[in-house]
Amino acid sequence: MNQDRVAVVTPDGTHTYADLDRASRAVAGALLGSVSDLSEARVAFFIPPGFEYTAVQRGIWRAGGIAVPLALSHPAPELEYVLRDAGATVVIGAPESRALLMPIAQTLGTRFMTSVEVLAHPTRDDLPHVGAPRRAMIVYTSGTTGRPKGVVTTHAILGAEIGAMVEAWEWRPNDRMLLSLPLHHAHGIMNGLLAPLAVHATCEILPAFDAATVWERFGSGEITVFTAVPTIYHRLIAAWDQAPPATQQAWSAGARLARLMMCGSAALPVQTLARWREISGHTLLERYGMTETGMILSNPLHGERRPGFVGTPMPGVDVRLVDEWGAAVPDGAPGEIETRGPLVFLEYWKRPEETKAGFRDGWFRTGDTAVRENGAFRLLGRSSVDIIKTGGFKVSALEIEEVLRMHPAIGECAVVGVADQEWGEKVAAAVELRPDATLALPELQQWAKDRLAPYKVPRLLRTLDALPRNAVGKVVKPDVAALFTGPPRPAAP
Ligand code: MLC
Ligand code: AMP
To answer: Based on the number of CB atoms within 10 Å of its own CB, is 361 exposed (0-12), middle (13-18) or buried (19 or more)?
Structure first.
Protein backbone atom coordinates (compact mmCIF):
# COMPACT_ATOMS: atom_id res chain seq x y z
CA MET A 1 0.00 0.00 0.00
CA ASN A 2 1.22 3.47 -0.82
CA GLN A 3 1.63 5.12 2.58
CA ASP A 4 1.41 8.54 0.96
CA ARG A 5 -2.29 8.07 0.26
CA VAL A 6 -4.50 10.45 2.18
CA ALA A 7 -6.20 8.74 5.12
CA VAL A 8 -7.90 11.58 6.98
CA VAL A 9 -8.86 15.09 5.95
CA THR A 10 -10.04 17.57 8.58
CA PRO A 11 -10.66 21.32 8.47
CA ASP A 12 -7.07 21.67 9.82
CA GLY A 13 -5.26 19.58 7.26
CA THR A 14 -4.55 16.42 5.36
CA HIS A 15 -3.01 13.32 6.90
CA THR A 16 -1.56 10.36 5.03
CA TYR A 17 -1.55 6.71 6.07
CA ALA A 18 2.16 7.20 6.90
CA ASP A 19 1.16 10.04 9.28
CA LEU A 20 -1.44 7.79 10.87
CA ASP A 21 1.09 4.99 11.29
CA ARG A 22 3.60 7.33 12.89
CA ALA A 23 1.09 9.05 15.17
CA SER A 24 -0.41 5.77 16.35
CA ARG A 25 3.05 4.41 17.16
CA ALA A 26 3.68 7.55 19.22
CA VAL A 27 0.43 7.02 21.12
CA ALA A 28 1.30 3.36 21.66
CA GLY A 29 4.70 4.39 22.98
CA ALA A 30 3.18 6.87 25.41
CA LEU A 31 0.70 4.31 26.69
CA LEU A 32 3.14 1.43 26.99
CA GLY A 33 5.89 3.26 28.86
CA SER A 34 7.97 0.50 30.38
CA VAL A 35 5.57 -2.38 29.66
CA SER A 36 5.49 -4.42 26.45
CA ASP A 37 1.73 -4.96 26.15
CA LEU A 38 -1.30 -3.20 27.68
CA SER A 39 -2.94 -6.64 27.86
CA GLU A 40 -6.50 -5.34 27.42
CA ALA A 41 -6.23 -2.41 29.83
CA ARG A 42 -9.12 -0.06 29.13
CA VAL A 43 -8.04 3.28 27.68
CA ALA A 44 -10.82 5.83 27.45
CA PHE A 45 -10.52 8.82 25.14
CA PHE A 46 -12.38 12.08 24.84
CA ILE A 47 -11.27 13.64 21.56
CA PRO A 48 -13.30 15.43 18.86
CA PRO A 49 -13.76 13.54 15.59
CA GLY A 50 -10.62 14.07 13.48
CA PHE A 51 -7.08 12.87 12.92
CA GLU A 52 -6.12 12.85 16.61
CA TYR A 53 -9.13 10.70 17.44
CA THR A 54 -8.14 8.23 14.71
CA ALA A 55 -4.49 8.12 15.77
CA VAL A 56 -5.36 7.62 19.45
CA GLN A 57 -7.85 4.85 18.66
CA ARG A 58 -5.19 3.06 16.59
CA GLY A 59 -2.47 3.72 19.14
CA ILE A 60 -4.54 2.06 21.87
CA TRP A 61 -5.00 -1.01 19.67
CA ARG A 62 -1.34 -1.17 18.69
CA ALA A 63 -0.39 -1.11 22.38
CA GLY A 64 -2.77 -4.01 23.12
CA GLY A 65 -5.39 -1.91 24.94
CA ILE A 66 -9.17 -1.78 24.74
CA ALA A 67 -10.42 1.51 23.26
CA VAL A 68 -13.30 3.15 25.14
CA PRO A 69 -14.60 6.20 23.23
CA LEU A 70 -16.27 8.84 25.40
CA ALA A 71 -19.08 11.15 24.29
CA LEU A 72 -18.08 14.80 23.97
CA SER A 73 -21.59 15.95 24.86
CA HIS A 74 -21.81 14.04 28.14
CA PRO A 75 -21.83 15.83 31.48
CA ALA A 76 -19.46 14.75 34.27
CA PRO A 77 -21.75 12.15 35.92
CA GLU A 78 -22.18 10.21 32.66
CA LEU A 79 -18.44 10.29 31.93
CA GLU A 80 -17.64 9.17 35.45
CA TYR A 81 -20.07 6.28 35.11
CA VAL A 82 -18.37 5.02 31.94
CA LEU A 83 -14.84 5.41 33.29
CA ARG A 84 -15.79 3.61 36.48
CA ASP A 85 -17.75 0.84 34.79
CA ALA A 86 -15.03 0.19 32.21
CA GLY A 87 -12.35 0.30 34.90
CA ALA A 88 -10.29 2.61 32.69
CA THR A 89 -6.66 2.87 33.74
CA VAL A 90 -5.98 5.85 31.50
CA VAL A 91 -8.12 8.58 29.99
CA ILE A 92 -6.75 10.59 27.08
CA GLY A 93 -8.41 13.96 26.60
CA ALA A 94 -8.08 16.91 24.27
CA PRO A 95 -6.26 19.64 26.25
CA GLU A 96 -9.46 21.69 26.68
CA SER A 97 -11.11 18.73 28.45
CA ARG A 98 -8.63 18.78 31.34
CA ALA A 99 -10.90 20.79 33.68
CA LEU A 100 -13.78 18.36 33.07
CA LEU A 101 -11.85 15.08 33.16
CA MET A 102 -9.10 15.67 35.70
CA PRO A 103 -11.36 15.73 38.79
CA ILE A 104 -13.12 12.55 37.64
CA ALA A 105 -9.80 10.88 36.92
CA GLN A 106 -8.51 11.84 40.35
CA THR A 107 -11.62 10.47 42.07
CA LEU A 108 -11.25 7.15 40.27
CA GLY A 109 -7.48 6.91 40.36
CA THR A 110 -7.37 6.94 36.56
CA ARG A 111 -4.36 8.49 34.83
CA PHE A 112 -5.18 11.57 32.71
CA MET A 113 -3.05 12.28 29.63
CA THR A 114 -3.65 14.92 26.99
CA SER A 115 -3.87 13.99 23.33
CA VAL A 116 -1.08 16.48 22.63
CA GLU A 117 1.17 14.72 25.11
CA VAL A 118 0.59 11.22 23.72
CA LEU A 119 0.94 12.33 20.08
CA ALA A 120 4.21 14.11 20.82
CA HIS A 121 5.73 10.99 22.40
CA PRO A 122 8.60 9.32 20.50
CA THR A 123 7.27 6.60 18.20
CA ARG A 124 7.72 3.02 19.28
CA ASP A 125 8.58 0.15 16.97
CA ASP A 126 8.57 -2.92 19.25
CA LEU A 127 4.81 -3.17 19.50
CA PRO A 128 3.05 -6.25 20.85
CA HIS A 129 1.40 -8.82 18.61
CA VAL A 130 -2.32 -8.34 19.21
CA GLY A 131 -4.22 -11.44 18.13
CA ALA A 132 -7.69 -11.26 16.55
CA PRO A 133 -9.49 -12.92 19.52
CA ARG A 134 -8.39 -10.16 21.88
CA ARG A 135 -10.82 -7.50 23.07
CA ALA A 136 -10.57 -4.26 21.08
CA MET A 137 -13.37 -1.85 21.99
CA ILE A 138 -16.12 -1.13 24.48
CA VAL A 139 -18.96 1.09 23.27
CA TYR A 140 -21.58 2.10 25.83
CA THR A 141 -25.18 1.73 24.76
CA SER A 142 -28.47 2.07 26.62
CA GLY A 143 -30.65 -0.95 27.20
CA THR A 144 -33.85 -1.92 28.93
CA THR A 145 -32.08 -2.34 32.25
CA GLY A 146 -31.26 1.14 33.48
CA ARG A 147 -27.67 2.30 33.09
CA PRO A 148 -25.79 1.92 29.79
CA LYS A 149 -23.90 -1.32 29.19
CA GLY A 150 -20.48 -1.70 27.63
CA VAL A 151 -20.63 -3.65 24.37
CA VAL A 152 -17.33 -5.52 23.95
CA THR A 153 -15.98 -6.39 20.53
CA THR A 154 -12.75 -8.20 19.66
CA HIS A 155 -10.46 -7.38 16.77
CA ALA A 156 -11.93 -10.39 14.93
CA ILE A 157 -15.47 -9.08 15.39
CA LEU A 158 -14.51 -5.57 14.26
CA GLY A 159 -12.82 -7.12 11.23
CA ALA A 160 -15.92 -9.15 10.38
CA GLU A 161 -18.22 -6.13 10.78
CA ILE A 162 -16.00 -4.00 8.56
CA GLY A 163 -15.56 -6.81 6.03
CA ALA A 164 -19.31 -7.18 5.63
CA MET A 165 -19.70 -3.46 4.89
CA VAL A 166 -16.77 -3.40 2.47
CA GLU A 167 -18.30 -6.30 0.56
CA ALA A 168 -21.92 -5.18 0.59
CA TRP A 169 -21.28 -1.54 -0.26
CA GLU A 170 -18.16 -2.12 -2.41
CA TRP A 171 -15.80 0.16 -0.55
CA ARG A 172 -12.80 1.05 -2.79
CA PRO A 173 -9.52 2.94 -2.20
CA ASN A 174 -10.66 5.82 -4.41
CA ASP A 175 -13.69 6.46 -2.20
CA ARG A 176 -13.95 9.61 -0.14
CA MET A 177 -16.28 9.45 2.87
CA LEU A 178 -17.74 12.54 4.48
CA LEU A 179 -18.11 11.77 8.19
CA SER A 180 -20.27 14.09 10.30
CA LEU A 181 -21.40 11.69 13.03
CA PRO A 182 -20.30 11.52 16.66
CA LEU A 183 -17.56 8.97 17.30
CA HIS A 184 -18.75 7.35 20.51
CA HIS A 185 -21.31 5.18 18.70
CA ALA A 186 -21.19 2.34 16.22
CA HIS A 187 -22.54 4.20 13.19
CA GLY A 188 -19.82 6.85 13.19
CA ILE A 189 -17.00 4.58 14.35
CA MET A 190 -17.65 1.52 12.19
CA ASN A 191 -19.55 2.71 9.12
CA GLY A 192 -18.12 6.22 9.04
CA LEU A 193 -14.49 5.83 10.03
CA LEU A 194 -13.22 2.25 10.04
CA ALA A 195 -14.85 0.98 6.82
CA PRO A 196 -13.17 3.58 4.58
CA LEU A 197 -9.83 3.27 6.40
CA ALA A 198 -9.91 -0.53 6.00
CA VAL A 199 -9.64 -0.17 2.21
CA HIS A 200 -7.22 2.77 2.37
CA ALA A 201 -9.81 5.21 1.14
CA THR A 202 -10.00 8.80 2.41
CA CYS A 203 -12.19 9.85 5.31
CA GLU A 204 -13.04 13.50 5.49
CA ILE A 205 -14.04 14.21 9.09
CA LEU A 206 -16.03 17.17 10.38
CA PRO A 207 -15.64 17.94 14.09
CA ALA A 208 -19.46 18.11 14.38
CA PHE A 209 -22.46 18.01 12.08
CA ASP A 210 -23.26 21.27 10.34
CA ALA A 211 -25.78 21.26 7.49
CA ALA A 212 -24.23 24.06 5.40
CA THR A 213 -20.74 22.54 5.65
CA VAL A 214 -22.01 19.12 4.62
CA TRP A 215 -23.80 20.63 1.62
CA GLU A 216 -20.73 22.61 0.62
CA ARG A 217 -18.66 19.45 0.68
CA PHE A 218 -21.29 17.70 -1.46
CA GLY A 219 -21.19 20.75 -3.75
CA SER A 220 -17.46 20.19 -4.33
CA GLY A 221 -18.32 16.94 -6.12
CA GLU A 222 -15.46 15.21 -4.28
CA ILE A 223 -17.47 13.13 -1.82
CA THR A 224 -18.28 9.61 -3.02
CA VAL A 225 -19.94 8.10 0.09
CA PHE A 226 -22.04 9.56 2.90
CA THR A 227 -23.84 7.96 5.81
CA ALA A 228 -26.09 9.57 8.42
CA VAL A 229 -29.16 9.21 10.63
CA PRO A 230 -32.64 10.36 9.52
CA THR A 231 -32.48 13.53 11.68
CA ILE A 232 -29.39 14.64 9.75
CA TYR A 233 -31.16 14.17 6.40
CA HIS A 234 -34.11 16.11 7.84
CA ARG A 235 -31.75 18.96 8.75
CA LEU A 236 -30.01 18.83 5.36
CA ILE A 237 -33.35 19.08 3.58
CA ALA A 238 -34.31 22.10 5.72
CA ALA A 239 -30.98 23.81 4.94
CA TRP A 240 -31.41 23.15 1.21
CA ASP A 241 -34.95 24.53 1.26
CA GLN A 242 -33.68 27.77 2.80
CA ALA A 243 -30.74 28.25 0.42
CA PRO A 244 -30.90 30.59 -2.62
CA PRO A 245 -31.67 28.83 -5.94
CA ALA A 246 -28.12 29.11 -7.33
CA THR A 247 -26.72 27.52 -4.17
CA GLN A 248 -29.35 24.78 -4.27
CA GLN A 249 -28.36 23.99 -7.83
CA ALA A 250 -24.64 23.83 -7.03
CA TRP A 251 -25.20 21.67 -3.94
CA SER A 252 -27.50 19.26 -5.79
CA ALA A 253 -25.18 18.98 -8.80
CA GLY A 254 -22.25 18.05 -6.55
CA ALA A 255 -24.31 15.60 -4.50
CA ARG A 256 -25.33 13.73 -7.64
CA LEU A 257 -21.65 12.85 -8.22
CA ALA A 258 -21.53 10.73 -5.06
CA ARG A 259 -21.90 6.99 -5.62
CA LEU A 260 -23.67 6.08 -2.38
CA MET A 261 -25.69 7.76 0.34
CA MET A 262 -26.84 5.64 3.29
CA CYS A 263 -29.17 6.04 6.22
CA GLY A 264 -29.65 4.10 9.44
CA SER A 265 -29.76 4.00 13.26
CA ALA A 266 -33.46 4.90 13.22
CA ALA A 267 -36.40 4.49 10.87
CA LEU A 268 -36.12 6.61 7.74
CA PRO A 269 -39.47 8.30 7.11
CA VAL A 270 -40.69 7.64 3.58
CA GLN A 271 -41.22 11.41 3.07
CA THR A 272 -37.57 12.08 3.90
CA LEU A 273 -36.48 9.42 1.45
CA ALA A 274 -38.69 10.90 -1.29
CA ARG A 275 -37.64 14.50 -0.71
CA TRP A 276 -33.97 13.56 -0.54
CA ARG A 277 -34.29 11.82 -3.89
CA GLU A 278 -35.77 14.99 -5.39
CA ILE A 279 -33.03 17.29 -4.23
CA SER A 280 -29.96 15.03 -4.36
CA GLY A 281 -30.85 12.43 -6.99
CA HIS A 282 -30.09 9.66 -4.46
CA THR A 283 -32.41 6.94 -3.26
CA LEU A 284 -30.99 6.50 0.22
CA LEU A 285 -29.72 3.01 0.99
CA GLU A 286 -31.39 2.22 4.31
CA ARG A 287 -29.77 -0.44 6.43
CA TYR A 288 -30.39 -1.78 9.94
CA GLY A 289 -27.87 -2.58 12.61
CA MET A 290 -27.01 -2.46 16.26
CA THR A 291 -23.97 -1.75 18.39
CA GLU A 292 -24.06 -5.39 19.53
CA THR A 293 -24.27 -6.88 16.05
CA GLY A 294 -22.81 -4.58 13.42
CA MET A 295 -24.92 -4.23 10.30
CA ILE A 296 -27.55 -6.94 10.04
CA LEU A 297 -29.78 -6.03 7.08
CA SER A 298 -29.29 -3.74 4.12
CA ASN A 299 -31.05 -2.63 1.00
CA PRO A 300 -28.99 -3.53 -2.08
CA LEU A 301 -26.17 -1.42 -3.48
CA HIS A 302 -27.34 -2.46 -6.93
CA GLY A 303 -31.02 -3.11 -7.44
CA GLU A 304 -34.25 -1.83 -6.00
CA ARG A 305 -34.20 -0.08 -2.61
CA ARG A 306 -37.70 -0.44 -1.24
CA PRO A 307 -39.01 2.50 0.80
CA GLY A 308 -39.87 1.41 4.34
CA PHE A 309 -37.77 -1.78 4.04
CA VAL A 310 -34.32 -2.50 5.44
CA GLY A 311 -33.43 -5.17 2.90
CA THR A 312 -31.80 -8.55 3.26
CA PRO A 313 -29.02 -10.00 5.47
CA MET A 314 -25.52 -8.54 5.16
CA PRO A 315 -22.76 -10.93 3.97
CA GLY A 316 -21.95 -13.53 6.63
CA VAL A 317 -24.97 -12.65 8.77
CA ASP A 318 -27.66 -15.17 9.73
CA VAL A 319 -31.05 -13.63 10.51
CA ARG A 320 -34.25 -15.28 11.70
CA LEU A 321 -37.62 -14.02 12.83
CA VAL A 322 -39.11 -15.80 15.83
CA ASP A 323 -42.14 -15.71 18.06
CA GLU A 324 -41.93 -15.24 21.82
CA TRP A 325 -41.02 -18.91 22.32
CA GLY A 326 -38.20 -18.81 19.77
CA ALA A 327 -40.05 -20.64 17.00
CA ALA A 328 -39.54 -19.34 13.46
CA VAL A 329 -42.50 -17.37 12.10
CA PRO A 330 -43.68 -17.77 8.49
CA ASP A 331 -43.15 -15.06 5.86
CA GLY A 332 -45.59 -12.21 6.32
CA ALA A 333 -45.91 -12.73 10.08
CA PRO A 334 -44.25 -10.43 12.61
CA GLY A 335 -41.40 -11.78 14.71
CA GLU A 336 -38.41 -10.65 16.73
CA ILE A 337 -35.17 -10.35 14.76
CA GLU A 338 -32.47 -12.70 16.01
CA THR A 339 -29.01 -12.84 14.50
CA ARG A 340 -25.83 -14.86 14.78
CA GLY A 341 -22.46 -15.03 13.09
CA PRO A 342 -18.96 -13.56 13.34
CA LEU A 343 -20.23 -9.97 13.59
CA VAL A 344 -22.01 -10.42 16.92
CA PHE A 345 -20.37 -8.87 20.00
CA LEU A 346 -18.49 -10.87 22.62
CA GLU A 347 -20.19 -9.77 25.84
CA TYR A 348 -21.56 -6.90 27.89
CA TRP A 349 -18.59 -5.74 29.93
CA LYS A 350 -18.62 -7.42 33.33
CA ARG A 351 -22.29 -8.36 32.99
CA PRO A 352 -22.38 -12.14 32.42
CA GLU A 353 -26.05 -12.43 33.37
CA GLU A 354 -27.15 -9.74 30.92
CA THR A 355 -24.93 -11.23 28.22
CA LYS A 356 -26.57 -14.61 28.78
CA ALA A 357 -30.04 -13.09 28.72
CA GLY A 358 -29.27 -11.39 25.39
CA PHE A 359 -28.97 -14.74 23.59
CA ARG A 360 -31.30 -17.65 22.82
CA ASP A 361 -29.67 -20.87 21.56
CA GLY A 362 -26.66 -18.90 20.29
CA TRP A 363 -28.82 -16.30 18.55
CA PHE A 364 -28.68 -12.66 19.73
CA ARG A 365 -32.10 -11.24 20.48
CA THR A 366 -32.27 -7.72 19.04
CA GLY A 367 -35.57 -6.66 20.65
CA ASP A 368 -36.67 -5.33 17.24
CA THR A 369 -39.75 -6.71 15.53
CA ALA A 370 -39.95 -7.14 11.77
CA VAL A 371 -41.83 -8.91 9.03
CA ARG A 372 -40.38 -10.52 5.88
CA GLU A 373 -42.27 -9.71 2.69
CA ASN A 374 -41.06 -10.91 -0.73
CA GLY A 375 -37.67 -11.71 0.77
CA ALA A 376 -37.00 -8.28 2.30
CA PHE A 377 -37.41 -7.22 5.91
CA ARG A 378 -39.62 -4.39 7.13
CA LEU A 379 -39.17 -3.17 10.70
CA LEU A 380 -42.31 -2.85 12.79
CA GLY A 381 -40.98 -1.53 16.09
CA ARG A 382 -39.26 -2.55 19.30
CA SER A 383 -40.43 -5.04 21.85
CA SER A 384 -39.70 -2.63 24.73
CA VAL A 385 -41.49 0.69 25.17
CA ASP A 386 -38.62 1.70 27.41
CA ILE A 387 -36.15 2.09 24.54
CA ILE A 388 -36.35 5.45 22.81
CA LYS A 389 -34.50 6.45 19.63
CA THR A 390 -34.01 10.20 19.40
CA GLY A 391 -31.85 11.82 16.72
CA GLY A 392 -30.43 8.32 16.13
CA PHE A 393 -29.32 7.96 19.76
CA LYS A 394 -30.72 5.07 21.77
CA VAL A 395 -31.82 6.10 25.25
CA SER A 396 -33.37 4.20 28.10
CA ALA A 397 -36.59 5.58 29.59
CA LEU A 398 -35.75 3.78 32.85
CA GLU A 399 -32.37 5.45 33.12
CA ILE A 400 -33.91 8.91 32.64
CA GLU A 401 -36.67 8.13 35.17
CA GLU A 402 -34.07 7.11 37.74
CA VAL A 403 -32.34 10.48 37.37
CA LEU A 404 -35.58 12.52 37.31
CA ARG A 405 -36.73 10.90 40.56
CA MET A 406 -33.83 12.70 42.25
CA HIS A 407 -35.38 16.10 41.40
CA PRO A 408 -36.77 17.67 44.57
CA ALA A 409 -40.13 18.54 42.96
CA ILE A 410 -40.73 15.08 41.46
CA GLY A 411 -42.54 12.37 43.39
CA GLU A 412 -42.94 9.81 40.61
CA CYS A 413 -42.41 9.96 36.88
CA ALA A 414 -42.70 8.03 33.62
CA VAL A 415 -40.64 8.70 30.51
CA VAL A 416 -41.77 7.78 27.01
CA GLY A 417 -40.79 8.45 23.40
CA VAL A 418 -43.20 10.58 21.40
CA ALA A 419 -43.11 10.39 17.60
CA ASP A 420 -41.57 13.45 16.01
CA GLN A 421 -40.88 14.34 12.37
CA GLU A 422 -37.38 15.71 13.01
CA TRP A 423 -36.09 13.59 15.88
CA GLY A 424 -37.86 10.28 15.20
CA GLU A 425 -38.90 10.31 18.82
CA LYS A 426 -38.69 13.01 21.47
CA VAL A 427 -38.06 12.27 25.12
CA ALA A 428 -41.21 13.11 27.08
CA ALA A 429 -41.66 13.03 30.87
CA ALA A 430 -44.93 12.78 32.79
CA VAL A 431 -44.48 13.57 36.47
CA GLU A 432 -46.40 13.46 39.73
CA LEU A 433 -45.22 16.43 41.77
CA ARG A 434 -44.49 16.39 45.47
CA PRO A 435 -46.99 18.28 47.64
CA ASP A 436 -46.89 22.04 46.96
CA ALA A 437 -44.15 21.68 44.35
CA THR A 438 -44.25 23.25 40.89
CA LEU A 439 -42.13 22.41 37.86
CA ALA A 440 -41.77 23.96 34.43
CA LEU A 441 -39.97 22.38 31.47
CA PRO A 442 -37.07 24.91 31.18
CA GLU A 443 -36.33 24.47 34.87
CA LEU A 444 -36.35 20.68 34.57
CA GLN A 445 -34.12 20.83 31.49
CA GLN A 446 -31.63 23.12 33.21
CA TRP A 447 -31.43 20.68 36.12
CA ALA A 448 -31.26 17.57 33.93
CA LYS A 449 -28.53 18.73 31.58
CA ASP A 450 -25.95 18.63 34.38
CA ARG A 451 -26.79 14.98 34.95
CA LEU A 452 -27.79 13.55 31.57
CA ALA A 453 -26.49 13.61 27.99
CA PRO A 454 -28.27 16.37 26.00
CA TYR A 455 -30.26 13.83 23.97
CA LYS A 456 -31.65 12.26 27.17
CA VAL A 457 -32.97 15.57 28.52
CA PRO A 458 -36.81 15.65 28.33
CA ARG A 459 -38.18 17.87 25.57
CA LEU A 460 -41.80 17.57 26.68
CA LEU A 461 -43.30 17.65 30.18
CA ARG A 462 -46.73 16.97 31.67
CA THR A 463 -47.42 17.39 35.37
CA LEU A 464 -50.23 15.20 36.67
CA ASP A 465 -52.04 14.42 39.89
CA ALA A 466 -51.62 10.75 39.15
CA LEU A 467 -49.84 8.81 36.41
CA PRO A 468 -52.03 6.39 34.44
CA ARG A 469 -51.76 3.03 36.22
CA ASN A 470 -53.32 -0.40 35.82
CA ALA A 471 -55.19 -2.38 38.45
CA VAL A 472 -51.98 -3.52 40.14
CA GLY A 473 -50.60 0.02 40.24
CA LYS A 474 -48.12 -0.33 37.37
CA VAL A 475 -47.71 2.72 35.13
CA VAL A 476 -49.23 2.10 31.69
CA LYS A 477 -46.69 3.53 29.26
CA PRO A 478 -48.95 3.64 26.16
CA ASP A 479 -51.40 5.74 28.20
CA VAL A 480 -48.54 8.02 29.25
CA ALA A 481 -47.55 8.44 25.59
CA ALA A 482 -51.16 9.27 24.76
CA LEU A 483 -50.96 12.22 27.17
CA PHE A 484 -48.54 13.86 24.76
CA THR A 485 -50.26 12.98 21.53
CA GLY A 486 -53.87 13.49 22.58
CA PRO A 487 -55.49 16.84 23.39
CA PRO A 488 -53.63 18.76 26.12
CA ARG A 489 -54.86 18.08 29.65
CA PRO A 490 -55.00 20.64 32.39
CA ALA A 491 -51.82 20.65 34.48
CA ALA A 492 -51.88 19.70 38.12
CA PRO A 493 -52.10 22.74 40.35
C1 MLC B 1 -30.59 18.08 20.49
N2 MLC B 1 -31.75 18.77 20.55
C3 MLC B 1 -32.77 17.92 20.65
C4 MLC B 1 -32.18 16.64 20.66
N5 MLC B 1 -30.83 16.77 20.55
N6 MLC B 1 -34.10 18.10 20.73
C7 MLC B 1 -34.88 17.02 20.81
N8 MLC B 1 -34.39 15.76 20.82
C9 MLC B 1 -33.05 15.55 20.74
N10 MLC B 1 -32.59 14.30 20.71
C11 MLC B 1 -31.95 20.21 20.49
C12 MLC B 1 -30.94 20.96 21.31
O13 MLC B 1 -31.35 21.09 22.64
C14 MLC B 1 -30.92 22.28 20.62
O15 MLC B 1 -32.06 23.02 20.99
C16 MLC B 1 -31.11 21.92 19.17
O17 MLC B 1 -31.73 20.63 19.17
C18 MLC B 1 -29.81 21.80 18.45
O19 MLC B 1 -28.96 21.03 19.27
P20 MLC B 1 -27.63 20.52 18.75
O21 MLC B 1 -26.76 20.15 19.91
O22 MLC B 1 -27.09 21.45 17.72
O23 MLC B 1 -28.09 19.22 18.06
P24 MLC B 1 -27.13 18.53 17.18
O25 MLC B 1 -25.83 18.32 17.88
O26 MLC B 1 -27.12 19.24 15.87
O27 MLC B 1 -27.77 17.11 17.09
C28 MLC B 1 -28.46 16.63 16.03
C29 MLC B 1 -27.74 15.44 15.43
C30 MLC B 1 -27.34 14.50 16.58
C31 MLC B 1 -28.70 14.77 14.50
C32 MLC B 1 -26.49 15.89 14.67
O33 MLC B 1 -28.52 14.11 17.25
C34 MLC B 1 -26.53 13.34 16.12
O35 MLC B 1 -25.33 13.46 15.88
N36 MLC B 1 -27.13 12.15 15.99
C37 MLC B 1 -26.44 10.93 15.54
C38 MLC B 1 -26.60 9.84 16.53
C39 MLC B 1 -25.79 8.60 16.17
O40 MLC B 1 -24.67 8.68 15.68
N41 MLC B 1 -26.37 7.44 16.40
C42 MLC B 1 -25.74 6.18 16.05
C43 MLC B 1 -26.05 5.12 17.09
S44 MLC B 1 -25.36 3.57 16.56
P45 MLC B 1 -31.96 24.56 21.37
O46 MLC B 1 -33.37 24.90 21.75
O47 MLC B 1 -30.99 24.60 22.49
O48 MLC B 1 -31.47 25.20 20.11
C49 MLC B 1 -26.69 2.70 15.95
C50 MLC B 1 -26.42 1.46 15.18
C51 MLC B 1 -26.82 1.71 13.77
O52 MLC B 1 -27.78 3.14 16.05
O53 MLC B 1 -27.65 0.98 13.23
O54 MLC B 1 -26.29 2.65 13.19
P1 AMP C 1 -27.88 1.17 19.04
O2 AMP C 1 -28.10 0.36 20.25
O3 AMP C 1 -27.62 2.60 19.30
O4 AMP C 1 -26.85 0.52 18.22
O5 AMP C 1 -29.21 1.14 18.23
C6 AMP C 1 -29.67 -0.01 17.58
C7 AMP C 1 -31.11 0.13 17.29
O8 AMP C 1 -31.33 1.16 16.34
C9 AMP C 1 -31.73 -1.09 16.70
O10 AMP C 1 -32.01 -2.06 17.67
C11 AMP C 1 -32.97 -0.50 16.04
O12 AMP C 1 -34.01 -0.37 16.99
C13 AMP C 1 -32.52 0.88 15.62
N14 AMP C 1 -32.23 0.96 14.17
C15 AMP C 1 -31.06 0.83 13.53
N16 AMP C 1 -31.22 0.97 12.20
C17 AMP C 1 -32.54 1.17 11.99
C18 AMP C 1 -33.35 1.39 10.83
N19 AMP C 1 -32.85 1.44 9.61
N20 AMP C 1 -34.68 1.56 11.04
C21 AMP C 1 -35.23 1.54 12.27
N22 AMP C 1 -34.51 1.33 13.39
C23 AMP C 1 -33.18 1.16 13.25
So the answer is: exposed
Q: Is the CB of 426 under 6 A from ligand 1?
A: yes
DSSP structural state of residue 443: H
How much is the pLDDT for 357?
96
Pocket of ligand 2 (CB under 6 A): 141, 185-186, 264-267, 286, 288-291, 310, 366, 368, 379, 382, 389, 394
- Could you tell me the domains of the chain? 387-482 (3.30.300.30)
Mean pLDDT, the chain, rounded, equals 96
Question: Is beta strand 363-373 parallel, antiparallel or unpaired with respect to 335-340?
Answer: antiparallel
CA–centroid distance, 394 to ligand 1, in Å, is 11
| CB 334 less than 6 A from any atom of ligand 1 | no
Residue of 404, 463, 457 whose CA lies nearest to 432: 463
pTM: 0.96
Tell me, what's the pLDDT at 486? 72
Question: Would you say the CB of residue 276 lies under 6 angstroms from ligand 1?
Answer: no
Helices (H), 132-280: 155-169, 186, 195-198, 211-219, 230-242, 245-256, 270-280
Residue of the nearest CA to atom 14 in ligand 1? 454
pLDDT, position 492: 46
Q: Tens digits of per-residue pLDDT, 50-73?
A: 999 999 999 999 999 999 999 999
What is the Å distance from ligand 1's center to 492 Cα?
Answer: 31
Q: In angstroms, what is the span from residue 380 Cα to ligand 2's centroid?
A: 12
Q: Which residues of the chain have pLDDT under 70?
A: 487-493
Q: What is the DSSP string of 107-130?
A: HHTPEEEEHHHHHTSPP---PPP-
State how far the Cα of 240 lies from the Cα of 226, in Å rounded to an integer. Answer: 17
